[in-house]
Design brief:
The complex is a heterodimer of chains A (267) and B (325).
Chain A: E1 42-46, H1 89-100, H2 102-105, H3 118-121, E2 126-131, E3 134-139, E4 145-149, E5 164-170, E6 173-179, E7 199-206, E8 211-219, E9 228-236, H4 254-258
Parallel strand pairs in A: 4-5
Antiparallel strand pairs in A: 1-2, 1-9, 2-3, 3-4, 5-6, 6-7, 7-8, 8-9
Chain B: H1 2-15, E1 41-44, H2 65-79, H3 89-92, E2 116-118, H4 129-143, E3 176-182, E4 185-190, E5 196-200, E6 217-223, E7 226-232, E8 248-257, E9 260-268, E10 277-285, H5 300-324
Chain lengths: 267, 325
């Protein structure tokens, strides 16, 4: 961080948010507003099949024979509002190739950071902590994180896996502009992908106490003929004592990534 | 930071061992001008004060201001990686120049000569015989060519940052943290490998003891304006200073000034240490933002270490074959 400093961040004094709000651990209490804005604090999770494929799809066998039904993909009606993703013809071919080689190419297989919006609808919970001029989102998967800056710090110095998120409120909706994303992440397990021209605009709108309506507009002129949208509800995890636990999957993929370099037989 | 991250991952384990002591003294004490219960902000945990009191400072708990200044100057010279050495190993050891390092330049404001305040000698108590044997075995594995990834440190494997704890400790590179608070939740987020702890302060209990975590399970409560965090349920694989899965950490975060947090930690692990111990240091307001430290995604270092070990073995095998013929 020290190398990227700039005096432009001198405003970083943070007032404490005294939220009389609802806690993830006590979901029975209704959410009170925080400084006049909706209180999105809590642990949330998507419950749909976007993780396997954003587009409408039938159920499908596992690409790995050994795991049988464990690795099969459940069917889903899709979350793309216009049905299919409006790919450019070349990009569509790339998507199909990605799909064919998904076991080799899907960054999730290697426990890589998921990017945005994929982090939102993976089958793991995530926690929102609304802290003054910063909104923290911690994802259980790979301990991925995002900080949403409610004061725009200016252009990110470098592209990254999770991008730079800048937020503002439009009425009851938290709008997050996500830029500086790299081209290494996918949208799902079906090979849907993007370039480093990706720009995502997310909208988080509370709909009742325990539901956030989530929408993401995807723009990438290198890959798509026009912007397109996904839309889905996010649900509060109401489970007793709910909390995030660790899913530090790096250790779980070491054999996959480094097994070929292992000494055989070991000393 | 991701570019920097991987390259440095390899040197950290080497250099953490090489803390450079010196000498000097004086009094201290932390004036508590209350910052209330607001710990939010971006914090820099770097300091040049060593974890343990250097042996040549035995019996001396504090520097005088003049001694502290001399100590800081001496370290700045000794640590300067822009100073070129003689050609060869000495110069290679400085291959990462100052731009890569983030050791801090100041001793702690209390002018203590060690981070450890308990026991009074400023030294970590001895390990139990079993913990010592395990630590020696790990150290030996680190000296030998690795059989597999598990023979290398957690930082090189991009599993947990060496400094993120708990307890948080100052390190030679990337000491940046951000604290978020809302309602009964405090988040301690480390730039290093984007590790974070969500700490509930709602009186809830620890998770069942059979669930073991790399960073443990943290529960907080407020004592006045001090956040007290109790962490258990460690998996024992971070080996903090020789600790095992029975590690129990109690941390205290107090905002003593608008731009300072006093951080105190207490360590108990009866199967690893012969007695409890603890220390304290100061977090200072950082100047910049936190950036993504995508460590695992660019971890070519670990493949390089392992494949080099195998290549060396092959070379040695061929050589001994040749000698037979």
């Amino acid at each position: 961080m020290h190398q990227l400093d700039s005096a432009r961040f001198a405003w970083l004094f943070l007032p404490l948010v005294c939220a009389s709000g609802l806690l993830a651990q006590t979901p029975a209490k209704p959410a009170g507003d925080i400084e006049g804005h909706p209180n999105l604090n809590g642990i949330w999770q998507a419950v749909n099949e976007a993780n396997w494929n954003l587009e409408p799809h039938a159920a499908e066998a596992s690409p790995v024979v050994a795991v049988g039904a464990l690795g099969a993909a459940p069917a889903g009606l899709g979350v793309v509002t216009e049905g299919k993703i409006p790919y450019k013809p070349e990009a569509l071919k790339q998507r199909d190739q990605n799909y064919a080689k998904r076991i080799e190419l899907d960054p999730e297989v290697k426990c890589y950071l998921p990017g945005v919006p994929r982090a939102t609808y993976m089958p793991y919970p995530f926690q929102i902590v609304q802290s003054g001029k910063f909104i923290f989102i911690g994802y259980e998967y790979a301990n991925a994180t995002r900080t949403i800056y409610m004061d725009n710090p200016g252009e990110a110095p470098v592209d990254s896996w999770m991008g730079q998120s800048v937020g503002h409120w439009e009425g009851r909706t938290l709008v997050v502009d996500v830029t500086s994303l790299n081209d290494q992440t996918w949208f799902d397990r079906a090979g849907n992908f993007h370039s480093d021209k990706l720009h995502v605009i997310e909208r988080y709108t509370p709909s009742g106490r325990d539901v956030i309506q989530y929408e993401a507009t995807i723009e990438d002129p290198n890959t798509f003929v026009r912007p397109w949208k996904i839309s889905m509800p996010l649900y509060r995890r109401l489970d007793k004592n709910m909390q995030l636990l660790e899913f530090k999957c790096v250790e779980m993929v070491e054999e996959l990534l480094y097994g070929k370099y292992r000494k055989k037989p070991a000393n | 930071m991701k570019l920097v991250g991987l390259l440095v991952a390899c040197i950290i384990s080497v250099h953490l061992v090489a803390q450079t002591p010196a000498s000097a003294p004086k009094s201290a004490g932390t004036a508590a001008s209350s910052g209330g219960r607001d710990l939010t902000g971006i914090w820099d945990t770097a300091t040049v004060t060593p974890m343990e009191r250097p042996k040549d400072l035995a019996g001396k708990a504090y520097f005088t201001p003049a001694e502290a200044e001399a100590y800081e100057k001496q370290l700045a010279i000794e640590n300067d990686r822009d100073r070129r050495g003689k050609p060869g190993a000495d110069d290679v050891a400085r291959a990462y120049n100052e731009a890569w390092w983030d050791r801090g330049t100041k001793v702690v404001p209390s002018l203590r000569t060690s981070l450890i305040v308990d026991p009074a000698d400023g030294r970590i108590p001895p390990l139990t015989p079993a913990a010592r044997a395990a630590a020696q075995k790990r150290a030996a594995a680190l000296q030998a060519p690795p059989n597999g990834p598990e023979d290398r440190g957690i930082q090189e494997r991009c599993i947990v940052g060496v400094n993120v704890g708990p307890p948080i400790i100052p390190t030679v590179y990337n000491n940046n943290f951000q604290i978020f608070q809302s309602g009964n939740t405090v988040v301690v987020f480390s730039e290093m490998i984007h590790d974070y702890r969500v700490i509930p302060t709602d009186g809830s209990k620890h998770i069942p003891s059979n669930i073991r975590l790399w960073m443990g399970d943290s529960r907080g409560h407020w004592e006045g304006n001090t956040l007290v965090v109790d962490t258990t349920n460690f998996n024992g694989k971070t080996h903090f200073r020789g600790a095992d899965e029975n590690l129990h950490v109690i941390e205290r975060f107090t905002r003593v000034k608008p731009d300072q947090i006093l951080y105190q930690f207490h360590i108990e692990d009866p199967t690893a240490f012969e007695r409890p111990w603890g220390g304290e240091f100061t977090f200072n307001k950082a100047k910049g933002l936190i950036y993504e430290y995508a460590c695992h995604e660019g971890n070519y270092g670990l493949s390089g270490l392992l494949s080099a070990a195998r290549a060396e073995e092959q070379k040695a095998a061929h050589k001994s074959e040749d000698q037979k013929h």
